[in-house]
Amino acid sequence: MKLEIGNFVVKDVAFGAKTGFANGIFTVNKEEALAEVMKDEHITEAELHIVKPGDEVRLVPVKDALEIRCRVSGAPGNHPGATSDLCSTATGRVHSLTGASLLVVGKHWGSFQDGLIDMGGPFQRGTLYGFLKNIVLVADTDEEFERHEQQKKNHALRWAGMRLAEFLGKTLADLTPDSIDVYELDAVNRRDSAVSDLPSVVYVMQPQTQMEAMGYNTLVYGWDGNHMLPTYMHPNEILGGAVVSGSFMPCSSKMSTYEFQTNPTIKRLMKEHGKTLNFLGVIMSNLNVIMEQKIRSAIMVAQIANSLGADGAIVAEEGYGNPDVDYIQVIVELEKAGVKTVGISNECTGRDGKSQPLVALDPKADALVSTGNVSELVHLAPMKTVIGELDALQRDGLSGGWAGCVNPDGSCLLEDNAVFCADHPSGYSVKRCFEF
Questions:
Q1: What is the 3-state secondary structure (H, E, C) of the chain?
Q2: Which of the residues 41, 232, 405, 432 has an alpha carbon 20 to 30 A from that of 141?
Q3: Are 406 and 394 in contact (CB under 8 A)?
Q4: What is the number of alpha carbons within 13 Å of residue 355 lying toward its C-beta?
Q5: Do you know which InterPro entries this protein is assigned to (predicted)?
């Protein structure tokens, strides 16, 4: 299967008379873009902003991030099953803006999975999106039934973001990309000995699927991940847009839709394929609440990996706490099956950093990569401009925020938990450890 991603490197983003890309500048006709957003009758008001690295801007509550892209061939849209008819995303060509994203922000109301981004100041470094040129959709909806709920589906805003990213991306369809990345893997049993003799590695993804109520979980081809059992997937399917981020996850732990579309771990494994390793593909697993379900999924992951002939595995967990049990159980079952495994997750070690990092641990889980402590306290000075509503951080049950964490001058005290996608279990994390 062959997927081509054409990259348009963004030097700047601006508003203008016509939406399009030329000479490194992506221009957006604001009125046309907002008209596309307002086609959804549940969107009551909307605005667009442009924010760039170094701007004295704070965004909250951020709900999702998406790559601005379009399908040139191979599928009917960016997210088949969610915003278009079902079709495999593993083949064809995608055109995308590189170095930019679309951020979706609530104008007022936030929820448990929403977070904060600083575009400037010392905590710009807190998340990947502080270093991208971002088009920001800020909107409100008529979804009064969940206005004061801590858990919100954020359906209208999430779908508005997906539709807007595709609307903007369609202007790239007939242009020539700055570069083209080709992602192609032969069938596992049809690889020549030069590849098959290399160490065989599988990537296990554990997106958030714990909510039994529909509408909150990660979607795979539009299907709620709570219904899934561990499934083998071609890596091109994830890069091609098969997975949409859900609306249930403490925010620093989540993988945004952008991070599924551009997953750096998958891209590195594809780059190393045929050179240092034999990349077998992706096992899309799930996260469960009941112990029997956790064990069942872990056994199935190990069986798939073993049947593929995996020598090694990378397991990436979206979340912490209850999902740690799934995470460690999968690692244990893989190790029992003879598959050497490395795990990637954040940890919850308390504000003093002295608590047990994961809810579950096992001696077989002896190669773990930590992407950060969700409980780390972060002090943020006032920011010149706030897009969205800062009060959402303390009012609406955002993970990492609490009543009184926002001061009258606009400064904040919060946990890492509240910073949008800050821990990047997808592989984008730039955090370092220091020993004192």
A1: CEEEEEEEECCEEEECCCCEEECCEEEECHHHHHHHHCCCCCEEEEEEEEECCCCCEEEEEEEEEECCEEEEECCCCCCECCCECCCCCCCEEEEEEECEEEEEEECCCCCCCCEEEECCCHHHHHCHHHHCEEEEEEEEECCHHHCCCCCCCCHHHHHHHHHHHHHHHHHHCCCCCCEEEEEECCCHHHCCHHHHCCCEEEEEEECCCCCCCCCCCCEECCEEHHHCCCEEECHHHHHCCCEECCCCCCHHHCCCHHHHHCCHHHHHHHHHECCCEEEEEEEECCCCCCHHHHHHHHHHHHHHHHHHCCCEEEEEECCCCHHHHHHHHHHHHHHHCCCEEEEEEEECCCCCCCCCCCCCCCCCCCCEEEEEECCCEEEECCCCEEEECCCHHHHCCCCCCCCCCECCCCCEEEEHHHECCCCCCCCCCCCCCCCC
A2: 405
A3: yes
A4: 15
A5: Gly_reductase_pB_sua/b
Tens digits of per-residue pLDDT, 90-126?
999 999 999 999 999 999 999 999 999 999 999 999 9
pLDDT at residue 435 in the model: 66
Residue 343: the pLDDT is 98
Q: Residues 371-378: what's their mean pLDDT?
A: 94
State pLDDT tens for residues 236-293: 999 999 999 999 878 999 999 999 999 999 999 999 999 999 999 999 999 999 999 9
Side chain identity at residue 44, one-letter code = T
Residue 148 pLDDT grade (very low, low, confident, very high; cuts 50, 70, 90): confident
